[in-house]
Amino acid sequence: MPNPTKSPNCPFSNKAPRHLLLRFRSRLRFTSIVFASELSLSLSLSLSGSVSRARWRPRLLLTSIGGRLPLSPAMTLMTTPPLDQQEDDEMLVPHTEFTEGPQPMEVAPAEPATTGDAQSVDDPPSARFTWTIDNFSRLNTKKLYSDVFVVGGYRWRILIFPKGNNVDHLSMYLDVADSGTLPYGWSRYAQFSLTVVNQLQQKCSIRKETQHQFNARESDWGFTSFMLLGELYDPGRGYLVNDICIVEADVAVRKIMDYWSHDSKKETGYVGLKNQGATCYMNSLLQTLYHIPYFRKAVYHMPTTENDMPSGSIPLALQSLFYKLQYSDTSVATKELTKSFGWDTYDSFMQHDVQELNRVLSEKLEDKMKGTVVEGTIQQLFEGHHMNYIECINVDYKSTRKESFYDLQLDVKGCRDVYASFDKYVEVESLEGDNKYHAEQHGLQDAKKGVLFIDFPPVLQLQLKRFEYDFMRDTMVKINDRYEFPLQLDLDRENGKYLSPDADRSIRNLYTLHSVLVHSGGVHGGHYYAYIRPTLSDQWFKFDDERVTKEDVKRALEEQYGGEEELPQTNPGFNNSPFKFTKYSNAYMLVYIRESDKEKIICNVDEKDIAEHLRIRLKKEQEEKEQKRKEKSEAHLYTIIKVARSEDLLEQIGKDIYFDLVDHDKVRSFRIQKQMPFTLFKEEVAKEFGVPVQCQRFWLWAKRQNHTYRPNRPLTPQEESQSVGQLREVSNKANNAELKLFLEVELGPDLRPIAPLDRTKEDILLFFKLYDPLKEELRYIGRLFVKGSGKPMEILTKLNEMAGYAPEQEIELYEEIKFEPHVMCEPIDKKIAFRSSQLEDGDIVCFQKPPPGSGQPCRYPDVPSFLDYVHNRQVVRFRSLEKPKEDEFSLELSKLHTYDDVVERVANHLGLDDPSKMRLTSHNCYSQQPKPQPIKYRGVDHLSDMLVHYNQTSDILYYEVLDIPLPELQGLKTLKVAFHHATKDEVVIHTIRLPKQSTVGDVINDLKTKVELSHPNAELRLLEVFYHKIYKIFPPGEKIENINDQYWTLRAEEVSFFYALNSNVHDQILGVNGLLSVV
């Protein structure tokens, strides 16, 4: 083979760039290139990068066939396997500097690739780039870029925010390094992972992966909340060693696929479901249920009425969804269904548990089907029964309990296939020794315990336990082990080993696979999709949100087993070990249909099964949708004109608004063809408002630099002779969406419209608001033309007349200048000309009587103080933290109120003497729940800070009344300890409060004063328990500040005699009041 071309960036080039020669001196060090070859460059190089998911094949071929990849000096191309790090993150966002909120984008990986074409030159180029950062904790820059590296012919770099992008996490992104110089319309697609390497334990490295189509608008993509800063900067964790942080990026560049050109209906006959943000898990389940025709028919036959609303009725929402899936030509939305669940927008952006959703949905439908023609359908389809038994060995005693199930949870870890899981499910457990069974009338007996199946349902749903808790890492992990499942499942195998003696052996329990639901990703995020064969034919279909494609049986079965995939060696002549990587896409739920029932279940469903009112409703919806589509397609031919009148100002000011003049969203709108002459539009206005064309004068609105919006100038005759479209282009170059006008109408003595008065350059149009300090009322009273050279004192009599005051009433004038970010309202000198006071067309003048004297006290004596009050006014709804849905009251407060101001007013309302015992908790606008942590005492400056949740503002706070002052409580550590009595079968929860520097011994001493001991000298111990297993025994000297009782149970008990005799307790089996665990 010919030698690879020497890239100008390659360290083997004759002239290496200066930044390469100096890289070891720089503050940011980079590792060099590692080649998997001998010294001669005449051999092709096979370089491997890291792996993200099964489809991402981590190889980079630098051969004369596939082309050569330019190498950066900052790139490490590794041949070693990737870190065993599975966790993903659903927070995938461009790095734009923002106030972070829930990031509703889920990781949506591409499908896995087959291994047959592993050596194809079309494989995506991929590489690993390693970035070593010195003096990390001393970085004082907000964001930091790595050196540029090249993958797939594209220039990339890593972007990090060492102190977080406005969050308490490290923020990290992959960035297109040359985005500013690329041609218009550029885009590139890459799958990539970012890793912070744990330099002490590689398995604890944090690695997150995603994919993105980069373009000019989104030139970087990644993770705003990559890892907690507290973990990163903790030197004991291993992420920062000698103040060095090592970051890796594995990048695979792929060809851009035209996702949107695929017509699922045309290609497959089926349509997909739209993703609301993170609802792919729900979409895969709904497609599976829809493709069980007997279930779909039963849903159609559930009684609903034409008066029901889909958003308030799960049956109607599901009927509507299934109808659209059956008859629509495009993908179907699920918003009505999720609303019927009672979900808000936030819930749709959270990945819920699929099994829980399946059970809740089944229970809801089962309940709704009661008393109808389809009652019992859920049970008939999905319900099976098993028998739990305990049988004594030495005496004639057996205890049995029959239980029903809608799905079965099967172990994956330690099981090679479904049959091994069923073997484990019915495995007999021996109860002997300290674990003997207490049989009635026989006392403690040796026994055997197990489960056997009485009957299986026609539709068997198997939930594979892909997720479990890892005690060593103190986190949930995903089990990606290989796990096989057959196309046909025989549960009568080995003479019915899974069946109980009471089972009906005449029923043949032979099942055929109908659906495979897949999860691709890690424990914290990922993507869900389903492989289904709707008619149980050989043809499989992949339902991936909106996209439906035809697939073969290998893709649906073998490639969803999980486990590891081995890539063929690219250089067979060498003894290098084969490259293996974990497949992160694997089955998590299987649906089987019993052979003997498939004719009944895979039945025909047509329009006669659908209620007439539903067909009419959905046909009307389709017509409305088509009309909206038509309007949208013709939108470029029309202009929206919003016309504000004095009547709108009179209606809105002092009620809906206080600042500026009008809310344009609440005025009359006209949808007018752009080509219509403006003179014809005036005729439309004449018909609508009863104002003759000759009596109309239109003003253009303008947004000023201080962000106010005011009438700016009247239309000229030349402008009125143009078309509506031309006028819009001229008047609103920045935003062509709509045209906003103010209609000036002059009224004669008989209050009928008259022709507008001639206006000169000297005339100024002013708008007037009247303020009453005693009533705290601001209202619009009219407009006037004044001469620029005139003085305010010349119009005082007219203003008094407009206000209904005596002609000689003294009044004060103020100009309303702006209201954001602060109110600016200044007095007007009545003796200075309007022009000299810088008043112009569209300005607002507020006036009032002089402030009342001390005999008539008022809160806001003048216009500026009232507008300040209105601007900062905030009505807050307070809810009890313990009973948020029951106890609520509202208080009018100021956004400028301090923490002490707020708790004082809440305490006064509740009749409490000591406001320091009040504790407040902010509201999560997305989950509509209290935030997990309360507001710290004086932890925020103002009320406005308490109400902000990321980029949303709430009007809700939660309160609780403490038994001690909050400042005192914040100096204490509160623990909830479950005390198990030594001789009585009772558990009492005790709340222990001690200074944060206290020890476990202090907790035990405090607990002794509150509990009843078996004898005065009894000793206690404190345990950390999780799922009935002892995880830790706290030594008496351990500080309590870092003890976490939120996820673990703290258990206190008397030290048993057995425990006291064994000093090396961690090597012993600990018996804890019936709890047995090896620690």
Automatic annotation (TrEMBL):
MATH domain location: 126-251
UniProt EC number: 3.4.19.12
Coiled-coil stretches noted in the UniProt entry, renumbered to this chain: 608-635
Similarity section: Belongs to the peptidase C19 family.
UniProt keyword Coiled coil present: yes
Cellular component, GO annotation: cytosol; nucleus
Region (Disordered): 101-124
Domain USP span(s) in chain numbering: 271-595
Top-rank lineage group of the source organism: Eukaryota
Keywords of the record: Coiled coil, Hydrolase, Protease, Thiol protease, Ubl conjugation pathway
GO biological process: one example: proteolysis
Molecular function terms from GO: cysteine-type deubiquitinase activity
One Pfam family named in its UniProt record: MATH_2
Record field: catalytic activity: Thiol-dependent hydrolysis of ester, thioester, amide, peptide and isopeptide bonds formed by the C-terminal Gly of ubiquitin (a 76-residue protein attached to proteins as an intracellular targeting signal)
Name of this protein: ubiquitinyl hydrolase 1
SUPFAM superfamilies hit by this protein: Cysteine proteinases, TRAF domain-like
